[in-house]
Amino acid sequence: MTKKQPLFYGWYIVAGAFLILAVNYGVRYSFGIFLKPMSDEYGWSRSVVSLGVSFNMLAYSFFTIFIGQMVDRIRPSHIITMGTLAVSLGLMMVGFAANPLIFYLVYGLFCGLGAAGLGIVVCNSSVAKWFHEKRGMAIGIASMGISVGTMTLTPLSGYIAKTYGWRQGFLTLAILSFVIGIIVSRLLFDRSAAKAGTDNMEQKAVKEKKSPRTSPFPPSFSQIFAGFLVTDKQFWLISLSFGFAYLTIMSVFVHQVPYAIDHGINPITAASSLASLGLAAFGGQFFFGWLTDRVRDAKYVVAFGFLMMALGMFILLNMRSEAMLYLFSLVFGFGYGCLAPLPSIILAERFGDETLGALYGMFTFLIGIGGSIGPFWAGYMYDHFQSYHQVWILNIVMLIGVTGAILLLQSRKSSRC
After folding, report:
1. What's the pLDDT tens digit per position in 345-399?
2. d(Cα 26, Cα 33) in Å, to the nearest integer?
3. pTM, whole model, 2 decimals?
4. At what angle do helices 10-28 and 120-130 cross, to 10 degrees?
5. In CATH, what is the architecture of 10-193+200-207+219-406?
6. What are the domain boundaries of the chain?
């Protein structure tokens, strides 16, 4: 009788990444729910409150450079544990931040640093190192955690903020982050692909298809900087395209709820529209991960996702009812679903996976600059025009532009391996 093969451990890594991403990005995308009540209570303008998110994204992006290098050297469980502690502490302290500088310190720096340790660089790089033949599907499934976190934590945050106050909302998110982050990091992320056995066919495929290395250690930050950021036009094209896309995404996630409330939508309904966006992204993440395994070049999948986001922004620009708000959430969310699984895939296709963590870290730093601009820029435009109309129009223009730009990317056959 044939002995039943145990479940490949890589799928436990996928499950852990799913949960960590759910908490990390569910917390991040819930912030827009707290923007208006914080602004009303403290008398801060929307640009002042939004600047905290911009600092959070900058800190996240900057620390991701170093987090990416750590992923190639140490177990992700240690990184996730430290990130959990920083995020939980920062979220707990937000309720005591009575002036903008303290708010920027605790939410911008502490939560940004912690989020880097819980982000897609750690999770998706860890998943990618365990898979080859099913890499797209594995990363797609893990990335679906972002949508699940958005679907569950945004309505929960909206209910708590409306019923008990925004401070209790942040406290609840801090407790959830701490409990889930510590448990998952210690139970599921305490093994590395490099030290795993090869008794599984998927793991054998990983080891057989790895590109040769002349050094037993991953290249340093300076080596990768010189080799990719300065000389590789493909890396810049990928980074700039995703960077502008993330600028539009962060402007939407932070300002979608206030925009809906300004148009007479009930606050809980407005918060629930973020959950609908997350639901659509849930399907999009799986679909785009699945599709990438069946398309000869992931750039076509990325372009399709960007185009769906542009269509969603057009719907939001003309939003006049709850039905249109939810239609926007479904269309934009489905397209947005491409952004979680595809960066690690498109980078691994062109540059290999030996230094994927470090390379992905610098890629995330670059796109994070765009993401950090989005919330403050949208808040500033609102303060100036008392409307988000100009913001949504420029978002459409940028998304159409990056749709065309990503198609200029050379095929992986002609890219450097």
Report:
1. 888 777 766 666 667 777 878 888 888 899 999 999 999 999 999 999 999 999 9
2. 12
3. 0.76
4. 160
5. Up-down Bundle (1.20)
6. 10-193+200-207+219-406
